[in-house]
């Protein structure tokens, strides 16, 4: 859906100026400006002045809130376009018209209809669809222009300075020590790539990162015509409902081989506890029961929830039993959540084939580990006996692996 009769901030190429000292400098400036335009097309949220402020106003005003929507008109798609028709609406939260609030703050401009532009220019035009509150929007825009607010400021607007660390191993390694020292960091979930992979913005550091959830293995969701794993779509939907465009906290632990950060993500409590404890069903607000579907919100009063633990407790992921995970302070909590989900037979644990496969895999891993330790003990005993008898032998690889421990 689109908000009726308003337009987001835009970069105006005509505002760009070039030096005129010589032809070479002029060409270099034009090439530089072309590079800037390419960057704006790829990152408009951060590179277009006041776009980020407009998004933040909407995010903080609307996320997790109940709103009233009125359909003003439907704008047909262009001939040959692959996009759907645009449904244009007016959005209200209580007495506040969101479009008017944006325009009043100078974070959006009003779209003139053909008839409106014709009246301003004295030409003949035909009426076009518009919001029912168009006159109020025009008055709000005039006030914002008069007060030089937002995009109408007399000062030169500059893009945000954001460092993108996504898939940049060298830069990610450079920032890793400082991010680890800071502990919990506030972040905004910009995009959810999968149930365990997120694109985050860290306001305090002005960083864009990709975060992989630590400690878990998630089923893969379907992509287009490609089918995913069982409960993969449910896991993705669960994460989207909880995290998309919301404030979260993160703890960074390490970096993978391509520059993605690995760590923990914590879901913060909602701003409004009533919104947190109720869900809208067919236009009516009903209290949740103790038994919740996978896509529901967090329980009332539950704050700073570890998302990895939440996914495991819903049976939508399993614990990744790796040494670096087992050393984590959250490992015990993860195992407890997995055991609870397995006993309750929720999510993936409701499937007999999955449960049997998991049990066989874990039993096999345990047995292999037991046999390896027995073999290493026998090899060590043989080595010690041979040395005591004065016989020189070459140690096997399994012996040297453990005999070198503790040496410098």
Automatic annotation (TrEMBL):
Query: What is a GO molecular function of this protein?
Result: RNA binding
This protein's GO CC annotations? cytosol; nucleus
Give the InterPro entries listed for this entry: SNase_OB-fold_sf (IPR035437), Staphylococal_nuclease_OB-fold (IPR016071)
UniProt region (Disordered), positions on chain: 357-408
**What range(s) does the TNase-like domain occupy?**
1-154, 183-351
GO biological process per UniProt:
mRNA catabolic process
Q: Which PANTHER family does its entry note?
A: EBNA2 BINDING PROTEIN P100, STAPHYLOCOCCAL NUCLEASE DOMAIN-CONTAINING PROTEIN 1
Q: In its UniProt entry, what is this protein called?
A: TNase-like domain-containing protein
């Amino acid at each position: 859906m689109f908000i009726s009769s308003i337009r987001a901030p835009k970069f105006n190429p005509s505002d760009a100026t070039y030096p005129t000292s010589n032809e070479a400098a002029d060409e270099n400036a034009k090439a530089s400006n072309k590079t800037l335009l390419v960057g704006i097309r790829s990152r408009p949220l951060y590179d277009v002045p006041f776009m980020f402020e407009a998004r933040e106003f909407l995010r903080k005003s609307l996320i997790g809130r109940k709103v009233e929507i009125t359909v003003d008109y439907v704008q047909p798609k262009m001939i040959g376009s692959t996009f759907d028709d645009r449904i244009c609406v007016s959005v209200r939260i209580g007495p506040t018209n969101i479009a008017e609030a944006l325009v009043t703050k100078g974070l959006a401009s009003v779209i003139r209809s053909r008839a409106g532009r014709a009246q301003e220019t004295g030409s003949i035009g035909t009426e076009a669809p518009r919001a029912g509150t168009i006159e109020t929007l025009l008055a709000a825009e005039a006030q914002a222009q008069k007060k030089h607010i937002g995009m109408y400021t007399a000062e030169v607007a500059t893009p945000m300075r954001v460092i993108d660390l996504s898939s940049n191993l060298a830069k990610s390694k450079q920032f890793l020590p400082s991010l680890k020292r800071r502990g919990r960091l506030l972040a905004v979930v910009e995009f959810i790539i999968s149930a365990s992979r997120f694109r985050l913005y860290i306001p305090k550091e002005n960083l864009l990162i990709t975060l992989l959830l630590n400690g878990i293995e998630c089923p893969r969701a379907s992509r287009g015509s490609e089918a995913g794993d069982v409960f993969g779509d449910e896991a993705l939907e669960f994460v989207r409902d909880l995290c998309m465009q919301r404030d979260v906290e993160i703890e960074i632990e390490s970096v993978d081989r391509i520059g993605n950060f690995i760590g923990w993500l914590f879901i913060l409590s909602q701003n409004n506890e009533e919104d947190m404890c109720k869900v809208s069903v067919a236009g009516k607000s009903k209290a949740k029961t103790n038994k919740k579907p996978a896509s529901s919100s967090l329980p009332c009063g539950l704050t700073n929830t570890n998302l990895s633990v939440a996914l495991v407790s819903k049976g939508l992921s399993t614990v990744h039993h790796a040494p670096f995970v087992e050393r984590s302070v959250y490992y015990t909590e993860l195992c407890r959540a997995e055991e609870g989900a397995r006993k309750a037979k929720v999510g993936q644990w409701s499937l007999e084939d999955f449960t049997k496969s998991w049990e066989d895999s874990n039993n096999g891993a345990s047995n292999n580990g037991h046999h390896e330790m027995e073999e290493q003990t026998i090899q060590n005993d043989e080595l010690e006996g041979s040395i005591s008898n004065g016989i020189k032998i070459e140690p096997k690889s399994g012996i040297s692996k453990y005999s070198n421990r503790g040496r410098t």
